[in-house]
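Table S2 (continued). Query chain:
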Amino acid sequence: MHAANLLLIVLATGLASQWLAWRIGLPAIVVLIAAGLVLGPGTGLVTLSLPQEELGELIGLGVAIILFEGGMDLKLAEFRRVGHGIGRLTIVGPPLAWLFGSLAAHYIGGLSWAVASVLGAILVVTGPTVILPLLRQARLNKESASLLKWEGIVNDPVGVLLAVLTFQYLTTSGGWESTLKGVGLAMAAAAFFGGLGGWCVGWLYRRGGVPEHLKAPILMVLVLVAYWASNLVQHEAGLLTVTLMGLVIGNMKLIELEALQRFKSHLTVVLLSVLFIVIPSQLQANQLSLLDGRIALFVLVVMLVVRPLTIALATIGAPMKHADKLLLGWIAPRGIVAAATAGIFGPALVASGYPDAALLLPVTFAVIIATVLAHGLTIGRVARRLGLAAASDNGLLIVGATPWSCALGAALKKQGVDVLIVDGAYHRLRQARMNGTPVYYGEILSDHAEHTLEAQHLSHLLCATENEFYNALVCKAQGRRFGHHRTFQLATDQTSGVELKRLTMQQRGHFAFDAAATFGMLRDRMEAGWTAQSTKLTKNHGWSELAARLGEQGKDWLLLGGVAPSGAFRLYSKEQHFKLDAGWTVLFFAPLAASVSKHDAEAVAPTAKTGAVAPD
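Corresponding output:
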């Protein structure tokens, strides 16, 4: 098959697998590996004629970019909050995991000591490419998420380096002296190319030494150069280098940091799609047939004994919550780095005289599939049982404490919808606190809010301050977190009368409620006696009856949103489709005289069969 056609098949299959995994709610890595097995051993459609060494080098370049992107996500502010736990997981944990994993591989998996030692080192890694999506899926609190994220990103290069040094010890005559020298060279290379090199790149970018359109592409090339140069100093030291480089650049507070991270995250998605198709596609059917009951038992021991024992010993006496220790003892999915490393060292060990190393790659894939499935499907349930995660994301984060937003928060709270009001002025939060509405005192765009504001249980954002441009800024900044379709702001002033002079959709959030619902309009109506009210829709009386009773929508009253019978909350916007069915509770803003009594609520609802759509 032509290279261009092969590349197209891999890219299309990889991204289609990512989309399918999102639709059915499975971890993406599971669908990707299944697709790779179908295209490779299953059908033989994807076969690469590259020598194993060259293929390993190309895979290494992709893994380097993935780990660099992960390093950029590591914030020192998180380390200052949970550093006691991170230190135990990244310094004490890896040697213990290596020891216990090696023992299990030898005595239970039946592998020789040499191969068992390399496999134990490979399985030290927990995989940021798997951990980070799981954290978003599970809605963990900040502290628990930080512990898992730091462990996954930092331990990846550590595990690879352990595997490299073990391999060198087994295949060279230098003994421990050569191994210790390798550790020193790896740390020196990482400090020079990753630490100093990353700082120099940030210094250059900060002073305008590179034009904006070249910053992201040049950074990608510099990451690969640093990876290559470090590997020249010490084999596989490049992964440690790029992780440190990402950590340094990610904490330099560069103005263009968000754009750089966005570029790298998009590239990472593509690389993951390719790598998790290519690597399993290279497995042979005879390799898969080597997996037997002993290997299955080994996988179970890795999950149920090695990991819990490692965490229990590594965190003895650490000032960590018991619930966090229990969660860490269970959650340890392996990812692309483990697969790539096994793909490199398996054939190399076989060539060095260790025939059972042919099991290295298939066993690693068995661990990857088992851990990703088990941990990916249970992390949310386990975390909620331990009190470390939100039960669901169903609620509203309101930026700007005003009499109107406090009234909205109180109305939602009565309907059982979670609400959090954020404001940088403490006195403005007084009314919300009196209403019993949860508040956060501080700037929503600050580092403090980024690392401490617990909003994983909230699904919608409403920016309701007087400054419409600040509202737009917050919506754009928080759009990726909530989803742009769930990010709203109050309408902008229309006094200019010219659409082209107003903020475009790409520069703001969706206008909440109505195009006339500006800050000034809501404030004036509030002072005139309007209130946030609710009424439940029934089968017999519908939307048309409610609209007829309240008058002209947008003038006599405003539709704010609704709560479905399931309890799901939706904020209304004319810019989005909004359907109301029987059983929904409608939230609206109207004069007090328009309030519907509890008895009359039965007379207000859309038809049951067709529902109703709020008029535009």
